[in-house]
Amino acid sequence: MATVNDQITDAVTQTNVNVLAEAPAMALGSLYQSMAHSTGILFENAVNAQQQQNILAQAAATQGVMQIYSLDTTADALATRNILQDAAAKAPKT
To answer: In degrees rounded to 5, what are phi and psi of residue 54?
Structure first.
């Protein structure tokens, strides 16, 4: 069996130790990057949901105002109908 130079053995060992020493830092860096991305998506979804809620609130307010404004029209129509019915009932029949 051939012998390997000690300098080569030391170089390979140091390279392996260097890779093993960097592994936790690389894993944490990847974890932090993933968490930052997930947090960004979380806030995007929260903003989108808030915008949708504001749109629904505006639509509900608009519907409420339209119903309030339509009450006077309905009351006017009912009063006009009653007046016409009373006038028709009092009119002489021929």
So the answer is: -65, -40
8-31 pLDDT per residue, tens? 787 777 777 777 778 888 899 999
Distance CA(78)–CA(84), nearest Å, equals: 10
Which tokens sit at 82?
């009653």
pTM of the model: 0.52
Alpha helices in 1-94 (DSSP H): 6-90
Provide the greatest CA pair distance for the chain: 135
Query: Which amino acid makes up residue 14?
Result: Q
* Matching residue, tokens 């009119």: 91
Residue with tokens 């140091």: 14
